[in-house]
Amino acid sequence: MLDPLGPPPAWLRNLVEPYALSLSSPTLPEHVHEVFLAFAFYQFIHSFLSPWLSPILFPKHYPKLNARTRLNWDIHVVSLVQSVLINVAALWMMFADTERSQMSTGERVFGYTGTCGLIQALAVGYFIYDLIVSVVYINMFGIGLLFHAVSALWVFSLGFRPFLNYYAPVFILYELSSPFLNIHWFLDKIEMTGSRTQWYNGMLLLSVFFCCRLVWGTWQSIMVYMDMWNALQQTWSAASSPLQTPTTVNANVFRPDSGSMCIDETCARANAEIARFSDFTANGVPTWLVVTYVTSNLILNFLNYFWFSKMVETVLKRFRTPPASEKEKKEGQDGQLKELQENIPQDVILEAAAKLEEQGGGRGELGLTPEQISTAIDAGFGEELRRRRAELVAKVPLPGS
């Protein structure tokens, strides 16, 4: 399927092409405008749109955030917008691009379609933004997110060779969980931590993350490893010809009848586009490229498993009541006793004290007159009085009981 946004201006293509060819990325000139537009769009959201719109939508919360949290808020807004847009585009393309769905094993490694290039360009534009943020604010986000940004940018940039162009929308579906992750973060900042809304969102987050990143992602990783292994087999076979002269792998990769079933020019062009850059892939795929791709993919998968365990822990922490410490238990008991003492009517205590005096003879065991007893109670001292009062509380019923 052809790129729905069309090619870049001729001047931009001519400007970028020499640098792209030196980097073995011949398809980059076809999508460089989309990379620039994506990066500029996300940077605009970060620097202008979010700081302007967030105080309007959340006037009670956003203005009160400190500088660090406000920066994090703006970054999450970019992530939310990007994840929604890229997922919609990837899902649409996977269903609409019939040429992609008919690719053979070799074409999945070496083939190219304009829509896959579009998805790849949009992803690269975002990951350039993400890399800059991860470097500038590494103390805030840590080395893990920096590794993620580098690995993701590297993996998607390889598609411009073209290499594994077919898998661009496949692995971008990792982002299906990102909207829920961002919503979970926003709910914390607008004082909805532990709410029913956050609970439902948290369950969706864990479910989608598990399905799209762990299940789907792991399975597709296995599939891409198998396709790359087949591509290496063809490369090694072509390189070890009897006369030690490398031969092209195109005969074993691209279908000879591409476009023969088309009834219009657009279809024929879309089918022909699959092998459009076959001259650049004729020598096969280098071993180092496969090794670095697998390494980056493994890093991303490891981070997904690690983050999933942290997400489970975080979501459960939001809704799990921690056990009370000994200090909290003691404070609670003291508070209950104080409340009980404050609720005992003064006349009940004085009457009970007078009875004690009668039993003890005159000034009795207390050694105080009723007036002095009252004064001692009001002043809050007299250890013996408090002990006797506690004993009487158990015997004298409170009013209304």
Kindly state the percentage of residues in helix.
Answer: over 70%
**Topology pattern, helix = H, strand = E:** HHHHHHHHHHHHHHHHHH
Instruction: Catalogue the unreliable spans.
Output: 361-366
Return Rg in Å. Answer: 35 Å
Counting helices, strands and paired strands, the structural category is: mainly alpha
| Total helical elements | 18
* First-last Cα distance: 82 Å
Sheet-strand content, in percent, reads under 5%
Question: What is the overall silhouette?
Answer: elongated
Describe the structure.
By secondary structure, this protein is mainly α. It has helices at 10-22, 28-57, 67-96, 98-101, 105-110, 114-136, 138-157, 168-172, 178-189, 196-239, 250-253, 265-273, 278-281, 287-319, 326-343, 346-360, 370-379, 383-395. The chain has two domains: 10-319, no CATH class; 326-395, no CATH class. α10 (196-239) packs antiparallel against α14. It starts with 9 loop residues before the first helix and ends in a 6-residue tail after the last helix. The chain crosses the membrane at residues 35-54, 75-95, 110-129, 136-160, 166-187, 199-219, 288-308. One of its GO terms (cellular component) is membrane. It is a multi-pass membrane protein.
